[in-house]
UniProtKB/TrEMBL annotation:
InterPro entries: 6-PGluconate_DH-like_C_sf, NAD(P)-bd_dom_sf, UDP-Glc/GDP-Man, UDP-Glc/GDP-Man_DH_C, UDP-Glc/GDP-Man_DH_C_sf, UDP-Glc/GDP-Man_DH_dimer, UDP-Glc/GDP-Man_DH_N, UDPglc_DH_bac. Keywords: NAD, Oxidoreductase. This is UDP-glucose 6-dehydrogenase. The lineage of its organism: Bacteria, Bacillati, Actinomycetota, Actinomycetes, Mycobacteriales. It comes from Mycolicibacterium chubuense. The active site is at residue 258. It comes from the Bacteria. GO terms for molecular function: NAD binding; UDP-glucose 6-dehydrogenase activity. The keyword Oxidoreductase applies. It catalyses: UDP-alpha-D-glucose + 2 NAD(+) + H2O = UDP-alpha-D-glucuronate + 2 NADH + 3 H(+). NAD(+) binds at residues 34, 39, 89, 124, 153, 261, 326. The gene is tuaD_2. It is an enzyme of class 1 (oxidoreductase). GO terms for biological process: polysaccharide biosynthetic process; UDP-glucuronate biosynthetic process. Its EC number is 1.1.1.22.
Length: 434
Protein backbone atom coordinates (compact mmCIF):
# COMPACT_ATOMS: atom_id res chain seq x y z
CA UNK A 1 0.00 0.00 0.00
CA UNK A 2 1.23 3.50 -0.82
CA UNK A 3 -0.16 5.87 1.83
CA UNK A 4 -3.77 5.58 0.68
CA UNK A 5 -6.68 4.00 2.48
CA UNK A 6 -7.76 0.37 2.46
CA UNK A 7 -10.95 0.49 0.42
CA UNK A 8 -13.50 -2.22 -0.25
CA UNK A 9 -16.15 -2.27 -2.96
CA UNK A 10 -19.09 -4.68 -2.93
CA UNK A 11 -20.74 -5.30 -6.29
CA UNK A 12 -18.76 -4.69 -9.47
CA UNK A 13 -21.55 -3.58 -11.77
CA UNK A 14 -21.44 -0.25 -13.50
CA UNK A 15 -21.11 1.91 -10.38
CA UNK A 16 -18.96 -0.48 -8.36
CA UNK A 17 -16.41 -1.13 -11.09
CA UNK A 18 -16.06 2.58 -11.87
CA UNK A 19 -15.64 3.33 -8.15
CA UNK A 20 -13.07 0.55 -7.72
CA UNK A 21 -10.82 1.51 -10.64
CA UNK A 22 -11.02 5.25 -9.96
CA UNK A 23 -10.16 4.86 -6.26
CA UNK A 24 -7.31 2.45 -7.11
CA UNK A 25 -6.18 5.11 -9.60
CA UNK A 26 -5.99 7.52 -6.64
CA UNK A 27 -3.38 5.35 -4.92
CA UNK A 28 -5.72 3.61 -2.51
CA UNK A 29 -5.50 -0.14 -2.01
CA UNK A 30 -8.80 -1.50 -3.34
CA UNK A 31 -10.39 -4.93 -2.94
CA UNK A 32 -13.60 -5.42 -4.94
CA UNK A 33 -15.95 -8.29 -4.11
CA UNK A 34 -18.79 -9.76 -6.13
CA UNK A 35 -20.75 -13.01 -5.83
CA UNK A 36 -20.48 -13.58 -9.60
CA UNK A 37 -17.41 -15.82 -10.00
CA UNK A 38 -17.26 -15.49 -13.78
CA UNK A 39 -17.25 -11.70 -13.54
CA UNK A 40 -14.48 -11.74 -10.92
CA UNK A 41 -12.39 -14.11 -13.06
CA UNK A 42 -12.71 -11.85 -16.11
CA UNK A 43 -11.95 -8.67 -14.17
CA UNK A 44 -8.94 -10.29 -12.47
CA UNK A 45 -7.64 -11.01 -15.98
CA UNK A 46 -8.10 -7.32 -16.85
CA UNK A 47 -11.20 -7.77 -19.06
CA UNK A 48 -13.24 -4.54 -18.63
CA UNK A 49 -16.81 -6.15 -18.80
CA UNK A 50 -18.53 -2.77 -19.27
CA UNK A 51 -18.30 -0.47 -22.26
CA UNK A 52 -16.80 2.68 -20.78
CA UNK A 53 -14.24 5.15 -22.11
CA UNK A 54 -10.84 5.08 -20.32
CA UNK A 55 -11.83 2.11 -18.15
CA UNK A 56 -9.72 -0.62 -19.85
CA UNK A 57 -6.49 1.31 -19.41
CA UNK A 58 -7.16 2.26 -15.79
CA UNK A 59 -8.16 -1.31 -14.99
CA UNK A 60 -4.98 -2.87 -16.36
CA UNK A 61 -2.75 -0.18 -14.83
CA UNK A 62 -4.18 -0.47 -11.31
CA UNK A 63 -4.18 -4.29 -11.38
CA UNK A 64 -0.56 -4.28 -12.57
CA UNK A 65 0.38 -1.80 -9.82
CA UNK A 66 -1.06 -4.21 -7.24
CA UNK A 67 -3.61 -1.65 -6.04
CA UNK A 68 -6.75 -3.43 -7.28
CA UNK A 69 -7.80 -7.01 -6.64
CA UNK A 70 -11.07 -8.80 -7.34
CA UNK A 71 -12.42 -11.47 -4.98
CA UNK A 72 -15.54 -13.50 -4.31
CA UNK A 73 -14.95 -13.90 -0.53
CA UNK A 74 -15.97 -11.17 1.92
CA UNK A 75 -13.09 -12.19 4.22
CA UNK A 76 -10.86 -10.23 1.83
CA UNK A 77 -12.58 -7.08 3.17
CA UNK A 78 -11.71 -7.74 6.85
CA UNK A 79 -9.08 -4.97 7.16
CA UNK A 80 -10.86 -2.31 5.06
CA UNK A 81 -11.26 1.29 6.33
CA UNK A 82 -14.16 2.17 4.01
CA UNK A 83 -16.41 -0.19 2.03
CA UNK A 84 -18.58 1.14 -0.80
CA UNK A 85 -21.71 -0.94 -1.33
CA UNK A 86 -22.73 -0.80 -5.00
CA UNK A 87 -25.03 -3.81 -5.41
CA UNK A 88 -28.08 -3.55 -7.65
CA UNK A 89 -31.40 -2.39 -6.19
CA UNK A 90 -33.86 -3.20 -8.99
CA UNK A 91 -37.43 -1.93 -8.83
CA UNK A 92 -40.40 -4.27 -8.83
CA UNK A 93 -43.57 -3.81 -10.90
CA UNK A 94 -45.00 -1.36 -8.33
CA UNK A 95 -41.83 0.76 -8.32
CA UNK A 96 -40.63 -0.44 -4.90
CA UNK A 97 -36.89 -1.12 -4.73
CA UNK A 98 -35.75 -4.69 -4.08
CA UNK A 99 -33.21 -4.44 -1.26
CA UNK A 100 -32.41 -8.13 -0.82
CA UNK A 101 -28.92 -7.88 -2.35
CA UNK A 102 -28.12 -4.84 -0.20
CA UNK A 103 -29.32 -6.47 3.02
CA UNK A 104 -27.39 -9.66 2.25
CA UNK A 105 -24.22 -7.63 1.64
CA UNK A 106 -24.65 -5.75 4.93
CA UNK A 107 -25.09 -9.03 6.81
CA UNK A 108 -21.85 -10.38 5.33
CA UNK A 109 -20.05 -7.13 6.18
CA UNK A 110 -21.10 -7.32 9.85
CA UNK A 111 -19.39 -10.73 9.94
CA UNK A 112 -16.03 -9.58 8.61
CA UNK A 113 -15.42 -5.84 9.15
CA UNK A 114 -13.61 -4.49 12.20
CA UNK A 115 -15.05 -1.82 14.51
CA UNK A 116 -14.29 1.68 13.19
CA UNK A 117 -14.82 0.75 9.54
CA UNK A 118 -17.34 2.79 7.55
CA UNK A 119 -19.86 1.27 5.12
CA UNK A 120 -20.86 3.73 2.39
CA UNK A 121 -24.01 3.01 0.42
CA UNK A 122 -23.66 4.06 -3.23
CA UNK A 123 -26.55 1.95 -4.53
CA UNK A 124 -29.68 4.03 -5.11
CA UNK A 125 -31.89 3.16 -2.13
CA UNK A 126 -35.25 4.31 -0.75
CA UNK A 127 -35.10 7.14 1.76
CA UNK A 128 -34.52 5.74 5.25
CA UNK A 129 -32.43 2.75 4.12
CA UNK A 130 -29.08 4.11 5.31
CA UNK A 131 -30.46 4.86 8.79
CA UNK A 132 -31.92 1.36 8.98
CA UNK A 133 -28.59 -0.16 7.91
CA UNK A 134 -26.74 2.15 10.33
CA UNK A 135 -28.73 0.74 13.25
CA UNK A 136 -27.63 -2.78 12.33
CA UNK A 137 -24.00 -1.78 11.85
CA UNK A 138 -23.78 0.28 15.05
CA UNK A 139 -23.96 -2.91 17.13
CA UNK A 140 -20.61 -3.88 15.58
CA UNK A 141 -19.03 -0.42 15.90
CA UNK A 142 -19.26 0.09 12.13
CA UNK A 143 -20.36 3.45 10.68
CA UNK A 144 -22.81 4.01 7.81
CA UNK A 145 -22.85 6.79 5.22
CA UNK A 146 -25.03 7.47 2.17
CA UNK A 147 -23.13 8.69 -0.89
CA UNK A 148 -25.22 8.32 -4.04
CA UNK A 149 -23.58 8.23 -7.46
CA UNK A 150 -24.34 10.59 -10.34
CA UNK A 151 -22.32 8.91 -13.09
CA UNK A 152 -23.45 9.12 -16.68
CA UNK A 153 -22.84 6.03 -18.78
CA UNK A 154 -20.17 6.61 -21.37
CA UNK A 155 -18.62 9.35 -19.19
CA UNK A 156 -18.44 7.51 -15.89
CA UNK A 157 -14.67 7.76 -15.32
CA UNK A 158 -14.66 11.50 -16.13
CA UNK A 159 -17.73 12.08 -13.93
CA UNK A 160 -16.15 10.19 -11.03
CA UNK A 161 -12.86 12.08 -11.41
CA UNK A 162 -14.42 15.54 -11.86
CA UNK A 163 -17.82 15.43 -10.17
CA UNK A 164 -20.18 18.45 -10.11
CA UNK A 165 -20.82 17.55 -6.49
CA UNK A 166 -19.99 14.85 -3.96
CA UNK A 167 -22.91 14.06 -1.69
CA UNK A 168 -22.03 12.70 1.74
CA UNK A 169 -25.02 11.80 3.89
CA UNK A 170 -23.69 11.15 7.39
CA UNK A 171 -24.57 12.00 10.98
CA UNK A 172 -20.97 11.54 12.07
CA UNK A 173 -18.38 14.15 11.00
CA UNK A 174 -15.61 11.57 11.45
CA UNK A 175 -17.29 9.10 9.09
CA UNK A 176 -17.97 11.89 6.58
CA UNK A 177 -14.31 12.99 6.69
CA UNK A 178 -13.12 9.42 6.06
CA UNK A 179 -15.36 9.06 3.00
CA UNK A 180 -14.20 12.46 1.67
CA UNK A 181 -10.58 11.33 2.13
CA UNK A 182 -11.35 8.17 0.14
CA UNK A 183 -12.76 10.25 -2.73
CA UNK A 184 -9.95 12.81 -2.46
CA UNK A 185 -12.84 15.23 -2.89
CA UNK A 186 -12.35 18.96 -3.46
CA UNK A 187 -14.02 20.41 -0.33
CA UNK A 188 -15.80 22.98 -2.51
CA UNK A 189 -17.77 20.17 -4.19
CA UNK A 190 -18.72 18.28 -1.02
CA UNK A 191 -22.32 18.56 0.14
CA UNK A 192 -22.53 17.16 3.68
CA UNK A 193 -26.09 16.41 4.75
CA UNK A 194 -28.20 13.85 6.58
CA UNK A 195 -28.51 10.33 5.10
CA UNK A 196 -32.20 11.00 4.36
CA UNK A 197 -31.40 14.17 2.41
CA UNK A 198 -28.65 12.39 0.48
CA UNK A 199 -30.94 9.53 -0.51
CA UNK A 200 -33.68 11.92 -1.53
CA UNK A 201 -31.25 14.20 -3.41
CA UNK A 202 -30.38 11.35 -5.77
CA UNK A 203 -34.02 10.63 -6.65
CA UNK A 204 -34.79 14.33 -6.84
CA UNK A 205 -31.97 14.99 -9.31
CA UNK A 206 -32.80 12.14 -11.66
CA UNK A 207 -36.54 12.79 -11.52
CA UNK A 208 -35.94 16.46 -12.33
CA UNK A 209 -33.98 15.44 -15.45
CA UNK A 210 -36.86 13.16 -16.47
CA UNK A 211 -39.37 15.98 -15.95
CA UNK A 212 -37.22 18.31 -18.07
CA UNK A 213 -37.06 15.73 -20.89
CA UNK A 214 -40.78 14.94 -20.90
CA UNK A 215 -41.58 18.66 -20.85
CA UNK A 216 -39.32 19.06 -23.89
CA UNK A 217 -41.08 16.22 -25.73
CA UNK A 218 -44.51 17.73 -24.95
CA UNK A 219 -43.29 21.13 -26.17
CA UNK A 220 -42.04 19.44 -29.34
CA UNK A 221 -45.54 18.10 -29.95
CA UNK A 222 -46.98 21.59 -29.44
CA UNK A 223 -44.38 23.15 -31.76
CA UNK A 224 -45.45 20.80 -34.51
CA UNK A 225 -49.09 21.82 -34.08
CA UNK A 226 -48.33 25.56 -34.17
CA UNK A 227 -45.67 25.37 -36.87
CA UNK A 228 -42.91 26.30 -34.42
CA UNK A 229 -39.48 24.73 -34.07
CA UNK A 230 -38.47 23.00 -30.85
CA UNK A 231 -34.79 23.83 -31.46
CA UNK A 232 -35.58 27.55 -31.42
CA UNK A 233 -37.80 27.22 -28.36
CA UNK A 234 -35.20 25.27 -26.34
CA UNK A 235 -32.43 27.64 -27.52
CA UNK A 236 -34.37 30.43 -25.83
CA UNK A 237 -35.07 28.38 -22.71
CA UNK A 238 -31.50 27.09 -22.43
CA UNK A 239 -30.01 30.60 -22.70
CA UNK A 240 -31.76 31.45 -19.44
CA UNK A 241 -29.20 30.73 -16.72
CA UNK A 242 -32.01 29.68 -14.39
CA UNK A 243 -32.97 26.85 -16.77
CA UNK A 244 -29.69 25.80 -18.44
CA UNK A 245 -29.25 24.21 -21.87
CA UNK A 246 -28.84 20.52 -20.98
CA UNK A 247 -31.56 17.88 -21.08
CA UNK A 248 -33.66 19.94 -23.48
CA UNK A 249 -33.11 17.74 -26.52
CA UNK A 250 -36.30 16.00 -27.73
CA UNK A 251 -36.13 12.29 -28.40
CA UNK A 252 -37.99 8.99 -28.54
CA UNK A 253 -38.43 9.13 -24.74
CA UNK A 254 -35.95 8.76 -21.91
CA UNK A 255 -34.61 5.46 -20.63
CA UNK A 256 -31.52 3.69 -19.36
CA UNK A 257 -30.82 1.98 -16.09
CA UNK A 258 -31.59 4.97 -13.82
CA UNK A 259 -34.29 7.43 -14.87
CA UNK A 260 -37.18 4.94 -15.30
CA UNK A 261 -36.30 3.07 -12.08
CA UNK A 262 -35.66 6.17 -9.99
CA UNK A 263 -38.82 8.01 -11.07
CA UNK A 264 -40.88 4.89 -10.31
CA UNK A 265 -39.27 4.55 -6.88
CA UNK A 266 -39.82 8.23 -6.07
CA UNK A 267 -43.51 8.10 -7.01
CA UNK A 268 -43.94 4.87 -5.02
CA UNK A 269 -42.23 6.16 -1.88
CA UNK A 270 -44.02 9.53 -2.07
CA UNK A 271 -47.37 7.75 -2.24
CA UNK A 272 -46.44 5.78 0.87
CA UNK A 273 -45.98 9.16 2.61
CA UNK A 274 -49.26 10.54 1.27
CA UNK A 275 -47.48 12.95 -1.09
CA UNK A 276 -48.64 13.17 -4.71
CA UNK A 277 -45.51 13.55 -6.83
CA UNK A 278 -47.72 14.74 -9.70
CA UNK A 279 -44.91 16.29 -11.79
CA UNK A 280 -42.95 13.04 -11.85
CA UNK A 281 -46.03 10.94 -12.55
CA UNK A 282 -46.88 13.22 -15.47
CA UNK A 283 -43.33 12.91 -16.82
CA UNK A 284 -43.67 9.11 -16.77
CA UNK A 285 -47.06 9.28 -18.51
CA UNK A 286 -45.65 11.54 -21.24
CA UNK A 287 -42.71 9.18 -21.67
CA UNK A 288 -44.75 6.04 -22.27
CA UNK A 289 -46.79 7.94 -24.89
CA UNK A 290 -43.75 8.66 -27.11
CA UNK A 291 -43.82 5.41 -29.16
CA UNK A 292 -47.46 6.07 -30.09
CA UNK A 293 -46.49 9.59 -31.25
CA UNK A 294 -43.90 8.08 -33.59
CA UNK A 295 -46.38 5.45 -34.76
CA UNK A 296 -48.95 8.14 -35.61
CA UNK A 297 -46.33 10.13 -37.55
CA UNK A 298 -45.40 7.07 -39.61
CA UNK A 299 -49.02 6.14 -40.30
CA UNK A 300 -49.73 9.65 -41.57
CA UNK A 301 -46.69 9.95 -43.82
CA UNK A 302 -46.05 6.47 -45.22
CA UNK A 303 -47.78 5.35 -48.39
CA UNK A 304 -48.42 1.81 -47.10
CA UNK A 305 -50.23 0.62 -43.94
CA UNK A 306 -48.00 0.08 -40.90
CA UNK A 307 -48.75 -3.66 -40.85
CA UNK A 308 -47.22 -4.01 -44.34
CA UNK A 309 -44.33 -1.62 -43.71
CA UNK A 310 -40.67 -2.41 -43.70
CA UNK A 311 -38.97 -0.06 -41.24
CA UNK A 312 -35.28 0.55 -40.72
CA UNK A 313 -34.29 1.62 -37.22
CA UNK A 314 -31.01 3.42 -36.71
CA UNK A 315 -29.81 3.20 -33.11
CA UNK A 316 -30.85 0.60 -30.54
CA UNK A 317 -28.94 1.57 -27.38
CA UNK A 318 -30.59 3.85 -24.79
CA UNK A 319 -28.27 6.70 -25.77
CA UNK A 320 -25.12 7.18 -27.84
CA UNK A 321 -21.61 6.21 -26.63
CA UNK A 322 -22.79 3.06 -24.86
CA UNK A 323 -23.76 -0.49 -25.82
CA UNK A 324 -26.32 -0.57 -23.01
CA UNK A 325 -29.88 -1.41 -24.08
CA UNK A 326 -31.42 -1.52 -20.59
CA UNK A 327 -34.79 0.26 -20.73
CA UNK A 328 -33.79 1.63 -24.11
CA UNK A 329 -36.44 3.99 -25.51
CA UNK A 330 -35.30 2.87 -28.97
CA UNK A 331 -36.34 -0.69 -28.19
CA UNK A 332 -39.62 0.49 -26.64
CA UNK A 333 -40.42 2.19 -29.97
CA UNK A 334 -39.42 -0.97 -31.87
CA UNK A 335 -41.60 -3.22 -29.70
CA UNK A 336 -44.51 -0.83 -30.21
CA UNK A 337 -44.13 -0.75 -34.02
CA UNK A 338 -43.59 -4.52 -34.18
CA UNK A 339 -46.82 -5.04 -32.21
CA UNK A 340 -48.59 -3.02 -34.94
CA UNK A 341 -47.28 -5.49 -37.53
CA UNK A 342 -44.31 -3.59 -39.01
CA UNK A 343 -41.19 -5.54 -40.03
CA UNK A 344 -38.15 -3.95 -38.34
CA UNK A 345 -34.52 -4.06 -39.46
CA UNK A 346 -32.16 -2.49 -36.98
CA UNK A 347 -28.60 -1.21 -37.10
CA UNK A 348 -26.47 0.18 -34.27
CA UNK A 349 -22.73 0.99 -34.27
CA UNK A 350 -22.40 -1.22 -31.15
CA UNK A 351 -24.40 -4.11 -32.62
CA UNK A 352 -21.68 -6.75 -31.91
CA UNK A 353 -21.92 -5.94 -28.17
CA UNK A 354 -25.73 -6.12 -28.03
CA UNK A 355 -27.47 -9.29 -26.88
CA UNK A 356 -29.39 -10.76 -29.86
CA UNK A 357 -32.25 -12.00 -27.67
CA UNK A 358 -32.92 -8.45 -26.44
CA UNK A 359 -33.36 -7.34 -30.04
CA UNK A 360 -35.52 -10.25 -31.10
CA UNK A 361 -37.84 -9.75 -28.14
CA UNK A 362 -38.33 -6.13 -29.34
CA UNK A 363 -39.17 -7.52 -32.81
CA UNK A 364 -35.94 -6.30 -34.43
CA UNK A 365 -33.92 -8.18 -37.03
CA UNK A 366 -30.31 -7.05 -36.61
CA UNK A 367 -28.41 -5.98 -39.72
CA UNK A 368 -24.72 -5.13 -39.37
CA UNK A 369 -24.67 -2.45 -42.07
CA UNK A 370 -26.89 0.66 -42.16
CA UNK A 371 -27.26 0.62 -45.95
CA UNK A 372 -28.28 -3.03 -46.08
CA UNK A 373 -30.66 -2.37 -43.17
CA UNK A 374 -32.31 0.33 -45.32
CA UNK A 375 -32.98 -2.00 -48.24
CA UNK A 376 -36.56 -1.53 -49.53
CA UNK A 377 -37.54 0.42 -46.41
CA UNK A 378 -40.77 2.40 -46.31
CA UNK A 379 -39.44 4.38 -43.37
CA UNK A 380 -36.12 4.99 -41.62
CA UNK A 381 -36.42 5.93 -37.95
CA UNK A 382 -33.44 7.48 -36.13
CA UNK A 383 -33.72 6.51 -32.47
CA UNK A 384 -30.28 6.97 -30.88
CA UNK A 385 -28.17 10.11 -31.31
CA UNK A 386 -25.06 8.41 -32.74
CA UNK A 387 -23.29 11.27 -34.57
CA UNK A 388 -22.20 8.95 -37.39
CA UNK A 389 -25.83 8.72 -38.61
CA UNK A 390 -25.56 12.36 -39.68
CA UNK A 391 -22.63 11.45 -41.92
CA UNK A 392 -24.28 8.49 -43.64
CA UNK A 393 -24.50 8.71 -47.42
CA UNK A 394 -28.20 9.63 -47.55
CA UNK A 395 -28.21 9.47 -51.34
CA UNK A 396 -27.13 5.81 -51.08
CA UNK A 397 -29.86 5.18 -48.54
CA UNK A 398 -32.37 6.75 -50.95
CA UNK A 399 -31.18 4.36 -53.67
CA UNK A 400 -31.92 1.42 -51.35
CA UNK A 401 -35.22 2.89 -50.16
CA UNK A 402 -36.65 5.26 -52.81
CA UNK A 403 -39.16 7.75 -51.42
CA UNK A 404 -38.84 6.51 -47.82
CA UNK A 405 -39.94 8.63 -44.87
CA UNK A 406 -37.12 9.52 -42.45
CA UNK A 407 -38.39 10.11 -38.90
CA UNK A 408 -35.59 11.78 -36.96
CA UNK A 409 -36.70 11.48 -33.33
CA UNK A 410 -33.48 13.11 -32.05
CA UNK A 411 -33.32 15.94 -34.63
CA UNK A 412 -29.85 14.73 -35.45
CA UNK A 413 -29.79 14.81 -39.24
CA UNK A 414 -29.45 17.71 -41.66
CA UNK A 415 -32.97 17.98 -43.16
CA UNK A 416 -31.63 19.59 -46.37
CA UNK A 417 -29.28 16.65 -47.08
CA UNK A 418 -32.02 14.09 -46.45
CA UNK A 419 -34.57 15.92 -48.59
CA UNK A 420 -32.01 16.56 -51.37
CA UNK A 421 -31.58 12.77 -51.55
CA UNK A 422 -35.29 12.48 -52.39
CA UNK A 423 -36.42 11.26 -48.97
CA UNK A 424 -39.21 12.79 -46.87
CA UNK A 425 -37.76 14.26 -43.65
CA UNK A 426 -39.79 14.39 -40.42
CA UNK A 427 -38.14 16.13 -37.48
CA UNK A 428 -39.38 15.94 -33.90
CA UNK A 429 -41.20 19.18 -33.06
CA UNK A 430 -40.42 20.89 -36.34
CA UNK A 431 -42.85 22.62 -38.66
CA UNK A 432 -42.94 19.89 -41.32
CA UNK A 433 -42.24 17.13 -38.87
CA UNK A 434 -44.27 15.23 -36.31
C1 LIG B 1 -28.49 9.08 -15.63
C2 LIG B 1 -28.25 10.36 -14.82
O1 LIG B 1 -27.93 11.45 -15.68
C3 LIG B 1 -27.13 10.13 -13.83
O2 LIG B 1 -26.97 11.29 -13.02
C4 LIG B 1 -27.51 8.95 -12.94
O3 LIG B 1 -26.59 8.73 -11.95
C5 LIG B 1 -27.73 7.70 -13.79
O4 LIG B 1 -28.75 7.99 -14.76
P1 LIG B 1 -27.44 7.83 -17.72
O5 LIG B 1 -28.33 6.68 -17.40
O6 LIG B 1 -26.06 7.56 -18.16
O7 LIG B 1 -27.36 8.82 -16.46
O8 LIG B 1 -28.23 8.62 -18.89
P2 LIG B 1 -28.41 10.16 -19.30
O9 LIG B 1 -27.23 10.65 -20.05
O10 LIG B 1 -28.83 10.95 -18.12
O11 LIG B 1 -29.65 10.01 -20.32
C6 LIG B 1 -30.90 9.50 -19.88
C7 LIG B 1 -31.89 9.40 -21.02
O12 LIG B 1 -32.31 10.68 -21.43
C8 LIG B 1 -31.36 8.71 -22.27
O13 LIG B 1 -32.35 7.86 -22.79
C9 LIG B 1 -31.06 9.88 -23.20
O14 LIG B 1 -31.10 9.53 -24.55
C10 LIG B 1 -32.18 10.83 -22.84
N1 LIG B 1 -31.90 12.24 -23.15
C11 LIG B 1 -30.90 12.89 -22.50
C12 LIG B 1 -32.70 12.90 -24.08
O15 LIG B 1 -33.61 12.32 -24.68
N2 LIG B 1 -32.45 14.23 -24.32
C13 LIG B 1 -31.46 14.92 -23.68
O16 LIG B 1 -31.33 16.16 -23.91
C14 LIG B 1 -30.65 14.24 -22.74
Amino acid sequence: MSGGLRIGVVGVGYVGLTTAVCLAGRDHDVVAVDIDEAKIARLSAGVPIIDEADLPDLLTRTIAAGRLTFRTDYEALADRDVVFVCVSTPSGPDGAADLRALDAAVTRLTQVLRAGAVVTIKSTVPVGTTRRVAKRLRAYGIGAVSSPEFLREGRAIADFTHPDRVVVGADSDTDAALVCAAYGADPATVLHMSPESAELAKYASNAFLAVKLSYTNSLAQLCRRYGGDIGDVTACMGADARIGPSFLQPGPGWGGSCLPKDTAALVFSAQAQGVAMAEVEAARTTNVAQPARIEAALRQSMTCPLRDARITVLGLTFKAATSDTRDSPALAVCAHLAAEGAALYGYDPRLPAIDATVLSSAGVTAVDDPYRAAKSADAVVVLTEWPQFRDLDWAAIAEHAPGAVVADTRNLLDPTTVEAAGLRYLGNGRADGY
